[in-house]
Specification:
The chain is built from six helices and seven strands. It has 216 residues and is an alpha/beta fold. The chain has one domain (2-209): Class I glutamine amidotransferase (GATase) domain (Rossmann fold, 3-Layer(aba) Sandwich). A seven-stranded mixed β-sheet has the order 1-2-7-6-5-3-4, sandwiched between helices.
């Protein structure tokens, strides 16, 4: 996502909620991107900063700020909108297809079918008033849109060969046998073009959630 943001002259800042930061003023933001993480959104008792992050996302949505959530970030959006987040029947780790579910209206349109990168073990209920954008055989709610400028993605379109390799090296203990868990050898054999394709799709999502905004 950084290349897309930099190409548009975007002034970006980063907030690490676990470090007890001073939060940015929502009145000065056009877009909030909530990224992934190994924790659960239900871990508030041991990670109390999760409450502040959910509240921040809730207020951003209420103010009409564009919000994009990726994996854990999508789960944060769902939780901030009052939905249950819970363990998915199976973990999804690797490259598996999703299929689009919204064929009409002004909602974002995914390709009918495409292969994307997954690394998650939890899922969420669809927020009231949201539109499901994609599903897969392993997970019913793969992507959703709330109102016109809030999108949650359970999968990772931002992944690059370098970030995937970092995940493989640091989270190799999760690469156990499973119906939807690919082996390290499979993950390492993916072509650069596959990453380029999902990155292009992420750019389309970013264009959609920021349409109508101007950047310097």
């Amino acid at each position: 996502m950084n290349p897309w943001l930099k190409a548009r002259g975007t002034e970006a800042s980063y907030t690490r909620f676990y470090a007890n930061p001073v939060l940015p003023d929502l009145k000065e933001l056009d877009l909030v991107i909530a990224m992934g993480g190994p924790m659960s959104v239900n871990d508030e008792s041991v990670l109390p900063w999760l409450r502040a992050e959910k509240q921040f996302i809730h207020e951003a949505i209420g103010r009409g700020v564009s919000v994009l959530g990726v994996c854990f970030g999508a789960q944060l959006i769902a939780s901030a909108l009052g939905c249950r987040v819970y363990r998915n029947p199976v973990k999804e780790i690797g490259w598996f297809p999703i299929e689009a579910t919204s064929g009409t209206g002004t909602a974002f349109q995914f390709p009918p079918k495409c292969n994307v990168f997954h690394w998650h073990g939890e899922t969420f209920d669809l927020p009231a008033g949201a539109v499901r954008l994609a599903r897969s055989k392993a997970c019913e709610n793969q992507a959703f849109q709330f109102k016109q400028n809030v999108i949650g993605l359970q999968f990772h379109l931002e992944t690059t060969p370098q970030s995937a390799q970092a995940l493989i090296e640091n989270c190799s203990d999760e690469l156990v046998h499973g119906s939807y868990i690919q082996a390290k050898s499979q993950l390492c054999a993916v072509s650069n073009e596959a990453y380029a394709e999902i990155n292009r799709l992420m750019n389309q999502v970013l264009v959609y959630v920021t349409r109508g905004l101007t950047t310097g």
